[in-house]
Amino acid sequence: MGGKSFANSLASGVAGIVVKPYEGAQSEGISGFFSGVLKGVAGVISKPVSGALDLVGQTTEGLKNTQKS
Predict the structure, then answer these.
(1) Per-residue DSSP letter, 69
(2) Following CA atoms 52, 53, 58, 64 in sequence, which dihedral angle do they give, to the nearest 10 degrees?
(3) What's the distance, CA 13 to chain centroid?
(4) What average pLDDT does this structure show over 39-64?
(5) CA–CA gap between residue 38 and residue 26 (Å, rounded)
(6) Residue 1 pLDDT class (50, 70, 90 cuts)
(7) What is the pLDDT of residues 11-46, one digit of tens each?
(8) What's the CA gap between 27 and 36, in Å, rounded?
(9) Short-list 65, 44, 46, 45, CA closest to 1
(10) Contact present, 10 and 51 (Cβ < 8 Å)
(11) pTM of model > 0.85
(12) DSSP string over 17-47
């Protein structure tokens, strides 16, 4: 479960590099495009980190539940 969450976060971050500038350009023109680039780059960094933390949390929770049985 944690691995799937990590993979989804990574894919979402990478997709944001393309999607965010496009959305920004559609709504605000060239300034929106550059704003979208910054948001996309921030997402590439933050989403995989969040996914990795979720992976660790899910794994820890699974280990904790296994030891209770």
Answers:
(1) -
(2) 130
(3) 4
(4) 86
(5) 16
(6) low
(7) 888 898 899 999 999 999 999 999 999 999 998 888
(8) 10
(9) 65
(10) yes
(11) no
(12) HHHHHHHHHHHHTHHHHHHHHHHHHHHHHHH
Q: Measured between alpha carbons, how far is 21 from 69 in angstroms, rounded to an integer? A: 49
Q: At 9, list the tokens.
A: 């976060």
The set of residues, in sequence order, having a beta carbon less than 8 Å from that of 2 and lying 6+ positions away, is 54, 55, 56, 57, 58, 59, 62
Q: Which residue has the tokens 């993979």?
A: 7
Total residues found in the chain within this entry: 69
Do residues 8 and 48 make contact, with C-beta atoms less than 8 angstroms apart? no
Model confidence at 64: pLDDT above 90: no
Domain boundaries, the chain: 2-68
